[in-house]
Amino acid sequence: SLYVLTKTTLFKETDDLPPDGGDNNFHIDIVPGSKPVFQALRPISQDQLGELWKQLDHLLSKGWIQHSKSPWGASVVFAVKKTGGIHVCWDYHGLNAVTIKDRTPLPNLREMRNQLLGARFYTLIDLKDAYHRLLIAPKDREKTAIRTRFRLFEYVVMPFGLCNAPGAFQRLMNQVLGDLYNICVICYLDDILIFSPNPNKHCRDVAEVLQQLQNHSLYVNATKCHWGQKEIEFCGHLFSSDGMRIASDKIAAVQDWPIPRTTRHIRQFLGLTKYFLDYIEQYAEIAAPLSTLQSLKSAFEWTVKQPKAFDSLKAAVTSVRCLCFEAGEVYFRV
């Protein structure tokens, strides 16, 4: 590590509630005239029931949820982790449908990457329980209620799954990083990348960012951070002083993608490859035969053009080169 922070609370367990932010607490504004949304309990297995209770017990012990008498109620859903375990989630589709949307923009990667011109050292910060570091306004907590076989609970801190959560968290991070933003650090939600031209300045930059995080009662997962690297993965791309290229696991995901069988599969594949649009010359032209299959009104026809386009996009992603950063004072001939 390039930097060792002493006498800090940054790396401790998140066993406290975030500070009361007043007007900056998370609010859930509902479309006028909307009624509370509640969902029926879904059948679950004994394994799922055990995992649910473990998760609820953890959230209660932290003070992140509390008992509720709310007229609202989201149901519990489960997802399988890549490691094989069970992930407990809440189905907030009903609440999101009647929530007034927060249009706070998220950072644009194309704009962020040009801030990295001249950087040679990088540190990636992993925040601990990031979303839970925002308190929900007391009047809005009942709207986050979750229905379980044990009883009804509601969140005290911002949970995952709410449509306005990303915008609210990005606003928090913009405030936390303040004048450092785009000078020595960029941030996409809870991904924080510190960049510097030399080791000495990087130590100072890391110290300043960590101090800002501590000032705002945010916590860092030290074992998941990457300190003082010359190449770093950020938002699916590998960055170095040479430029940027696609991360190997993202290339593998494209390589291993099975032949699409439905419109939904086509949309998923194009969504993945479009993320790397800047690397692929004539992307729209190559993808055109697949793009026509995105419409539900069109028949799903996998003839000669579609397999060719599918294979061409795969080949284009797996053969991309490094993209250089745009130098501000350099003129280009087009």
UniProtKB/TrEMBL annotation:
Pfam families given in the database record: RVT_1
PROSITE patterns: RT_POL
Location of the Reverse transcriptase domain: 1-239
Membrane-spanning intervals of the chain: none
Swiss-Prot/TrEMBL keywords: Endonuclease, Hydrolase, Nuclease, Nucleotidyltransferase, Protease, RNA-directed DNA polymerase, Transferase
Keyword Cell membrane: no
InterPro entries for this protein: DNA/RNA_pol_sf (IPR043502), Retrovirus_Pol_polyprotein (IPR050951), Rev_trsase/Diguanyl_cyclase (IPR043128), RT_dom (IPR000477)
Signal peptide: none
Record GO biological process: proteolysis
Coiled-coil region list: none
Example GO molecular function: RNA-directed DNA polymerase activity
PANTHER family: PROTEIN CBG26694, PROTEIN NYNRIN-LIKE
UniProt-recorded name of the protein: Reverse transcriptase domain-containing protein
Organism: Powellomyces hirtus
